[in-house]
Amino acid sequence: MNELRNLPSVEKIIQYSESEEWISKFGRHQTLRAIRETLDFFRSEIKSGKNAPDHLEISNQIQKILSDRFFPTLIPVINATGVVLHTNLGRAPLSHETIRSMQSIGSNYSTLEFSLSTGKRGSRSVHTEEILKQLTGAEAAIVVNNNAAAVLLVLSALAKRKNVIIARSQLIEIGGGFRIPDVMKQSGAKLKEVGTTNRVRVADYEQALQESAALVMRAHHSNFKITGFTQEPNLREIVEISHQFGIPVMDDLGSGTFLDTSEFGLSREPTIFDSIQADADIVSFSGDKLLGGPQAGIIIGKSVFIQKIKNHPLARVIRPDKICLAGLTATLTHYLRNEAVEKIPVWQMISRTSSSLETQAKFWQQKLKFGELLPSLSTIGGGSLPEETLPTFVLAVEHPKPDLVMKKLRSLDNPIIARLEDNKILFDPRTVLPEQETAFILGLQKIFDGLNKGDK
Fold first, then answer.
1. Are 9 and 123 part of one and the same domain?
2. Mean pLDDT, rounded, for 32-39
């Protein structure tokens, strides 16, 4: 236990030359806290039979504690997986114009709820409502913080303690355990199922509508497919039979898209325009999936229903902030200008040709001087277009310890996230952003050069 006497005091450590830098960078309080934690750590080590640390060991431990404490957990990564809307990696990267708009509004005072024409209080809903009306032809719109919240708000505002009719084939669960039946229960609405898991007919809706109901809801199969012996009426058929009974219809698109995905070699995803043209009364969709903007839940539809939704107390609880509204408006403007494919990263990725991806993967191979060029498939992800793929070319690298390589790639200053397939590490150029390519190549060089030198 004499080794404990060799531990320096807090007062002595604070005199270290390094302390001045720690205090400048992290503050005196956090520096003292890290010193005390370091001393506690080494006391425990000494009691377990180890020798007292020297100056360098103490300094390194303090530096590690401070660095870990102040290192952010939410950081940019390089997505080389080929999954365009990777939920775990933040879904849609934003356009440069969107980022500039968010930065401008975030760093200044703004007209969030202020009218320049009257000099009085305004409404935050005006910033996105007008452009959504222009884009979709809907009578009114409201934006909340995500599409799950949008569904909850609509049900709470229009169907509390009342029946909501929905097909059994649409009682979906998406990521994070979000289930339509649970949301209905939370809203106070009463679930009324029609049809069977694989077959639903217009007659099933008609029979259910004989009893009282506040709403008919359709939830798009955005993250799964039902195949085989199936039947399900289209949205227009559901709307027609519901309107015969005077009942409004909500269409929850989940992802939602303004562009026809079939033009990019994918199966056709129902568009937002389809829902409006089918005369759905309320339509909800996401801002950060195929739309390619910030996280948001967007509700459009007929004024009589949207006004009730706006007036519900929950609308304030889940309202978007100024950063979201600025980013969403900038993203929607790309669609209004008919420049989404050229400007929005998600659509830039989806629209890339197989030949351009082959050229880029070949460039990586020539630059790095290792790896194999292979044809492969990219996916859309993000609960959009299930099982849909796009042809691509990848740089494939074999290594006896692929998990070790993947871990090292994740430890880089610019972490690289790849995918493992048939024991090969695959790097798909489709999802590597142009401004990240240099860091990507340098990162691969660093890791594989180190492995070739025997780094463990």
1. no
2. 96
Whole-number pLDDT of residue 173: 63
Going by pLDDT thresholds of 50, 70 and 90, the confidence category of residue 199 is confident
Q: What CATH number is given to the structural domain containing 409? A: 3.90.1150.180
Q: Which two tokens stand for residue 148?
A: 């799950």
Domain that holds residue 47: 2-70
Domain CATH code at residue 239: 3.40.640.10
The token duo for 206 is 């008609």
Q: Say how many domains are in the chain.
A: 3
**In the numeric block, which tokens belong to residue 428?**
């798909």
- The CA distances from residue 114 to 124, 126, 299, 323, 330, in Å, are 8, 10, 23, 16, 19
pLDDT digits (tens, 9 = 90+) for 145-174: 999 899 999 999 999 999 999 988 767 666
Long-range contacts of 361-370 (CB under 8 A, 24+ apart): 361/393, 361/394, 361/395, 361/427, 361/429, 362/393, 364/395, 364/427, 364/429, 364/441, 364/444, 365/395, 367/441, 368/395, 368/441, 368/444, 368/445, 368/448, 370/397, 370/448
Both tokens of residue 55?
A: 């100056």
> Considering only CA atoms, which of 115, 118, 385 is closest in space to residue 265?
385
456 confidence band (pLDDT: 50, 70, 90): low
Task: Output the pTM of the full model.
Answer: 0.89
Q: Which residue has the tokens 């209004």?
A: 336
| 141-150, 226-235, 250-259, 396-405: segment of lowest average pLDDT | 226-235
Tokens 């600025």 sit on residue: 326
What is the distance between the alpha carbons of residues 397 and 386, in angstroms, rounded to a whole number?
Answer: 28
Choosing from 314, 343, 372, the residue where a domain stops is 343
Tokens of 354: 């197989």
Q: What is the pLDDT of residue 182?
A: 79
Residue 229's pLDDT is 54
Please tell me the predicted confidence (pLDDT) of residue 238: 93
Please tell me whether residues 127 and 187 are part of one structural domain.
yes
Same domain, 320 and 368: no
State the Cα–Cα distance between residues 445 and 443, nearest whole angstrom: 5
Q: What is the mean pLDDT of residues 303-328?
A: 96
Which ranges of 230-317 does DSSP label H, i.e. alpha helix? 235-244, 272-277, 303-311, 314-317
